[in-house]
Amino acid sequence: MSILDHDNVRDSLSEAWRRSEPGTPNAHEEGGFIVRTGTGDLFVIGWPKGAQREILVPPHPNGTRGNMPIIATFHTHPNIGPGFQQEPSLTDIRAVRDDPDLSHADYEGEFVISQNLVYLIRRSGQVDVVGVTAAVLGIL
Ligand SMILES: [Zn+2]
User: Fold this and answer.
1) Strand partners, 46
2) Span from the CA of 112 to the centroid of ligand 1 (angstroms)
3) Tens of pLDDT along 77-92?
4) The pLDDT of residue 85
5) Are 33 and 42 in contact (CB under 8 A)?
6) Sheet strands (E) in the chain
7) How far is the CA of 67 from the centre of ligand 1 (A)?
8) What is the pLDDT of residues 47-76, one digit of tens each?
9) How remote is the CA of residue 77 from the centroid of ligand 1, in Å?
10) Among 112, 123, 18, 17, which Cα is nearest to 70's?
């Protein structure tokens, strides 16, 4: 079962996307850690609200948050229209690839949610398209 097959994770990502007020003057990035509990459940621990084009990742020593392993991270790209990049930026890619606290084998990468597509930045720095946002997040 992949991470986004977990209904509660998908709902948390949809909620973060809505909260980032895409396409409005208040558009700002939202993000979070996806962690695994001792019983194998996954859930999202949100990051503090970001700015229009950036968001700060809270500390996550040894790939954990609240003593739970981080298995993925995500952030939104809520700015729409010409001049705004939808896909992960070089800064985004480096933040994943070059973070020693996100180098553990359980970490699948960082999802970047844009208006049209959801991307995944892998530990290697490779970027894949996960799918169409509305379908991936179940907000058709
Ligand atoms: Zn970004």
Assistant:
1) 32
2) 7
3) 999 888 888 999 999 9
4) 86
5) no
6) 31-36, 42-46, 64-65, 68-77, 110-114, 117-121, 127-132
7) 26
8) 999 999 999 999 999 999 999 999 999 999
9) 6
10) 123
